[in-house]
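hey team, just a heads up i'm posting the complex here instead of the shared drive bc the drive is being weird again. everything in one block, sequence lines first with there labels, then the predicted structure for the whole assembly after. its two chains so it's a bit long, scroll down
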Amino acid sequence: QKEVEQDPGPLSVPEGAIVSLNCTYSNSAFQYFMWYRQYSRKGPELLMYTYSSGNKEDGRFTAQVDKSSKYISLFIRDSQPSDSATYLCAMIDYGQNFVFGPGTRLSVLP
Amino acid sequence: EAQVTQNPRYLITVTGKKLTVTCSQNMNHEYMSWYRQDPGLGLRQIYYSMNVEVTDKGDVPEGYKVSRKEKRNFPLILESPSPNQTSLYFCASSSSSGETQYFGPGTRLLVL
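-- predicted structure starts here --
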């Protein structure tokens, strides 16, 4: 079993839909949780990060962490074609070991 | 402009020929890291550095070396590249413990 699991997709949604992206993990030592967005032929860019269970909102994006279930989510409201990208969850443990999920490819259709 | 730069962006080489991929950041970040990205496997950490002269292994360090002699530079060295090191490589930097990493544009390496 991989340390971090993520549905690889591809996920296709119509413009304006609410998108839910999810990751599960097995290592209870992970303390920081992040979501990155990666456009084709580009490096990942940080969208959001959090270190506690609960929700964190930033514009159309909401990150949710449930440490008891070892489950994190990213919600995108009013999705736009410009949101089409690969979304990577990432986590850091106490030893500064950085682990990424394999990524979910999202397509938002106009 | 704050950025992480990598060179070269594309490289084709042959098995056993030593190569170095350079990484430089202009944000005075302490933390720097190297990753490789492969289809279906996502990003995997190769090495990271918490500060000058401090480096540590990530998940997949075999076949790679790094050095951190200056704060801004963190080169990745492949002493004897093999075809299984064909991949897309990213360098990243961060100002603190690494949770807000900034990534370079990537280096696509093909080892024949």
